[in-house]
Amino acid sequence: MSFRLPELRGRNVSNNAIAPTLLALLLVLIPTIPITWILLGSVKSRGRIISNPLGLPETWHWDNFIAAWEGGNFSTYFVNSVLVVVPVVVSILVLSLFASYAFALMSFRGRDMLFILFLAGLTIPLAVLIIPLFYEMLALKLLNTLWALILPQIAVALPFSILLLHSFIRDLPREILDSGRIDGCTSFGLLRYIVAPLCRPALLTLLVFNFMWTWNQFLLPIMLIQEDSKRTLPVGLNFFQGQYANDVPLMMAGATITFLPIVIIYVIFQRHFIQGIAAGALKS
Fold this sequence. Notes:
Blueprint: H1 5-41, H2 46-51, H3 63-71, H4 74-105, H5 111-120, H6 126-139, H7 147-170, H8 174-182, H9 187-198, H10 200-215, H11 219-224, H12 233-243, H13 248-268, H14 270-283
Helix pairs in contact: 3-13, 4-7, 4-10, 4-12, 7-10, 8-9, 10-14, 12-13
């Protein structure tokens, strides 16, 4: 009996691992099913998607993407989205890094109160701010400009970014920071050469989060932009679907053009993104 016991335990462990493995596989498949359906539908013909919506394409109609790109004015919407996302994400990373460094490692009057005021921004939904933002952009003569999308999104995303980086910087090893000070690093040098490199996983996590949130932003563009030449991809896709409601493959091609950059960014930074999430979980 004593020799068979380890074998039985091994079998129990393997049997017990089947259910979690199947559950994990199911959880992976659930979000990929609609994405796969949209990707396959975007290269089908209209007749094929009506007769067999779940089947594979008989003929791959890559020209659906060209028709959607040209007919839906996606070239303009894509450029506008890039012109909004890049300054928003870069500004958030830079400003949140400086602010978090000051809140975590510097002592100044009113630091705690100011930090609480920043965190109060997490409790205010964007929908509550949209009407005051509209009149503020109107007073500043920024309506129907990309600045009406860039500035509010930086302000709205800063509280969460500061909170995440603040906890990350606060838990950095003090020995490393002290050794930098002993070696003659100024506050800016400490931030540049020690803190920023150590915060790389958290910064890349924020990059992915803020890129996805800014790229998918719909409420601000639909309320603050009325000119078609200034619309971003999500809003442009909404109007495109209204124009081509009967052409399902064309709509799916437009949806693929809209979400494909997010998938690419996530795939590129996937390893760093997971590292940042895991590091934050361990620190908490």
